[in-house]
Amino acid sequence: MAWKQWAASKRLKPGDGRELQRFRRRQLPLRSPFWLRLPDAYGRARRYAVDVRHWARLDTSRIRAHLLLDARHTAESSLPAVFPSTGVSSRWR
Is it true that the peptide bond before 14 is cis, omega within 30 degrees of 0? Predict the structure, then answer.
């Protein structure tokens, strides 16, 4: 693991289990959601989502990225972020 990846993994905090909020077109300048379907260790397709709200923390100047697995909040980190995923080869990037 490279030093930058190690440092990013130390910023990772557990999520609280809340649901993914609906994305509206008017949020486009303020919010960036990304979705990806990946198989888990059992071959089931899991839906990963990363939600970044660009203007959410202007007071602390720390923008946070939120990882959601099957529409449930599982982790968050300040940027740049590295999130874990299961069932993915380490050579896939």
Answer: no
Cβ contact 14:69 at 8 Å: no
From CA 57, how far away is CA 55, in angstroms rounded? 6
State mean pLDDT over 54-74: 79
Is the separation of the CB atoms in 53 and 68 below 8 Å? no
| Tokens at 16, concatenated | 């609280």
| CB distance 66 to 81 below 8 Å | no
DSSP output for 38-82: EE-TTS-EEEEEEEEETTTTTTTT--EEEEEETTEEEEEEESS--
Residue 60: its pLDDT value, please? 64
Helices (H), the chain: 3-10
Q: Do the beta carbons of residue 79 and residue 2 sit within 8 Å?
A: no
Q: What is the pTM of this model?
A: 0.74
Count other Cβ atoms within 10 Å, centred on residue 31. Answer: 16
82's tokens: 């590295």
